[in-house]
Target: GNAT family N-acetyltransferase
Amino acid sequence: MTTQTLNIKTYKLGPDAPDELSAEDTQRVAEFLHTHLDEYGDALEDIQACLVYAKERGGSVTYAEEDGEILGAVITNRTGMSRFIPENILVYIAVHGKTRGRGLGKQLMEMVLDNMEGSVALHVEAHNPAKKLYERLGFTNKYLEMRLQR
Model:
């Protein structure tokens, strides 16, 4: 019987950060998120654009893998603002369906938050079960977000 080991990797991104996240792993993370965000997801091109933004302006990528398979991933971006808008936004987080309910999402969130400086915002649908995790981690609902889509 082989023992599987969960490996969590975090990469700080930005103009002053070392570019340690390979193009292959960047693509793997984007494809994982596109597949596992389910109904809360975006187009692959949008996830890839988020990664480009993080590499150019600042942010991070954290992902967990076991035996070469990604089981969870998080992307954050720096907003370039402070006080009136949080300095960071957690843009994407997803865990593989086979790991849900085992604490991997919480583990990833705690690792990401421990490695960030400044306030953090995230958007979550009211009916998303992950909302309870975010509240347990200290996130509060300060505003009702409204958008005008054009």
